[in-house]
Write a structure and sequence with these properties.
The chain is α/β, with parallel strands linked by helices and 495 residues long. It is 39% helix and 13% strand. Bound molecules: 4-nitrophenyl beta-D-glucopyranoside.
């Protein structure tokens, strides 16, 4: 923009301002396009992320694909659950969702316009094995073949998740889903088959998305519910926990056995993030102890091959039944660890008791985004990877999800000015930058989500996307946050 044009523009705005403040609003997020200059005035003070940092976006199969009856796909527990009256807040389901199954080329172009280097998506188990086990559906992987080719043609690196909660219904009916040891075994067979077919193009595989979320919220007694929506006793719940991590370990082994050499594999876990309430050496140590204990049934056993004493003491007679061999499988060596980080689950201080830490209660008006669990605490994106690297010496970390739910409202022209999402992202990324600047080995970041999608029991009404989706027309429109993220990626820094 030339200086005279700028002046004219300003004069126009000033004149319009007399007519009302709304005239001062930008008309289109495109006005927030990257500027030509390489440097921001403040760039000297803000060093960027490491060279080659892998910026990406994330989605999952059931939340975006639709086409639930196409090409031989079997039913999943989420089809059943979403069609059960009263389960989904806005009575929606994901039969069509974002129709990504047919619009994936357009969606890859959205990624391309953002400038992302990588994309995390999930493969629907019931497309590949409609009954969970047995003969694979001959058309089951065709869609993912097409998607992979499209991504690679656009220089976007695919990161595939094998289980993002869409368990084949048949396995739930046959033996209670993850209550049975047969489910982790079936999962490993499916994992091996996918690895054998796709690792010519997929070099990074995540086994299970958030064991802790789908187990605790799907099988435990919680106010937030996920499919299959059971409320099991502690004893049965502990067994489900064990089978979930066993499924992860068996899948790691199956991928190693069937995938091409060089395929990298790891979990994408919803780490319980513990943040020192005040950063003193004692509280920092307490937060490390708390991180290890409060991830006892998930990351800790995956990375250490044992349940902690406190975990077993707490479970008592309800502890899971397992063998020494199980623990070896669960802790099969991984190449990286992915963590989903939205909130600090706990602020921690040191304590002189046997635990060595105490949890600080959250005040009633603590700030939330538009989900009752999504507490705002940007430091989580520093402490989660920092503690993961410190406690377990993890050398390759991905932030597999981070993002914000907002009750977005488009203006008269259909544009969403989501300053609240930008506020959230800017602050969280500032803390991620603190981590990488200190040498915490975070290699990439997948923003949840590329576009609005089916937000589980919140349905279609709660939005996490960088793109607004009109579910009637399937039109995708970039929000202001898409311009923000494009600029972050282009500059490899917080903007
Ligand atoms: C994750 N909680 O889910 C999932 O991996 C995504 O599929 C989901 O859309 C995204 O986060 C946003 O919700 C979570 O209650 C669901 O703490 C619930 C919780 C955490 C993560």
């Amino acid at each position: 923009m030339s200086p005279s044009h700028t002046r004219r523009h300003f004069a126009k705005l000033a004149a319009q301002a007399a007519l009302g403040i709304s005239a001062l609003l930008i008309e289109n997020p495109a006005q927030a396009r990257p500027t030509k200059s390489k440097r921001l005035p403040s760039s000297k003070a803000s060093p960027g992320f490491p060279k080659g940092f892998l910026w990406g976006t994330a989605t999952s199969a059931y939340q975006i694909e639709g086409a639930v009856k196409e090409d031989g796909r079997g039913q999943s527990i989420w089809d059943t659950y979403a069609h059960t009256p009263g389960k989904i807040k806005d009575n929606s389901n994901a039969d069509r969702a974002n129709d990504h199954y047919h619009r994936y080329k357009e969606d890859v172009q959205l990624m391309k316009a953002l400038g992302v280097k990588s994309y995390r998506f999930s493969i629907a188990w019931p497309r590949v094995f409609p009954q969970g086990t047995g003969t694979p559906n001959p058309k089951g992987l065709d869609f993912y073949d097409r998607l992979l080719d499209e991504l690679l043609a656009n220089s976007i690196e695919p990161f595939a998740t094998l289980y993002h909660w869409d368990l084949p219904q048949e396995l739930q009916d046959r033996h209670g889903g993850w209550e049975s040891r047969d489910t982790p075994k079936a999962f490993a067979d499916y994992a091996g088959y996918v690895a054998q077919r796709l690792t010519d193009r997929v070099k990074h595989i995540f086994t299970i998305n958030e064991c802790s979320a789908f187990v605790e919220l799907g099988y435990g007694n919680n106010s937030i519910e996920l499919a299959p929506g059971l409320k099991l006793s502690q004893r049965r719940l502990n067994q489900v926990r064990h089978h979930a991590v066993l499924g992860h370990g068996l899948a790691v082994q199956a991928i190693r056995a069937s995938g091409r050499a060089g395929t990298k594999v790891g979990p994408a876990e919803n780490i319980t993030t513990c943040v020192p309430a005040i950063e003193t050496p004692e509280n920092i140590r307490a937060a490390e102890i708390a991180t290890r204990e409060l991830n006892g049934g998930y990351l800790t056993v995956m990375l250490e091959g044992k349940y902690t004493d406190a975990f077993l003491a707490y479970a008592g007679a309800d502890a899971p039944k397992y063998t020494a061999e199980d623990l070896k499988v669960i802790s099969a060596p991984v190449d990286f660890v992915g963590i989903n980080v939205y909130s600090p689950q706990h602020y921690v201080v040191s304590a002189d008791d046997t635990h060595g830490f105490a949890l600080v209660p959250f005040p009633p008006s603590y700030p939330l985004m538009n989900s009752n669990w999504l507490k705002v605490g940007p430091e989580a994106l520093y402490w989660a990877p920092r503690n993961l690297a410190k406690i377990w010496n993890v050398k390759e970390i991905y932030i597999t999800e981070n993002g914000a739910s907002i009750a977005d409202v488009p203006d008269a022209k259909g544009i969403v000015y989501d300053l609240d999402r930008i506020m959230y992202l800017r602050n969280y990324l500032t803390h991620l930058l603190r981590a990488t600047s200190e040498g915490v080995p975070v290699r990439g970041y997948f923003l949840w989500s590329l576009m609005d999608n089916f937000e589980w029991s919140d349905g279609l009404a709660n939005r996490f996307g960088l793109h607004w989706v009109d579910y009637d027309t399937q039109r995708r429109t970039p929000k202001l946050s898409a311009s923000f993220y494009r600029e972050v990626i282009a500059r490899n820094s917080v903007v």
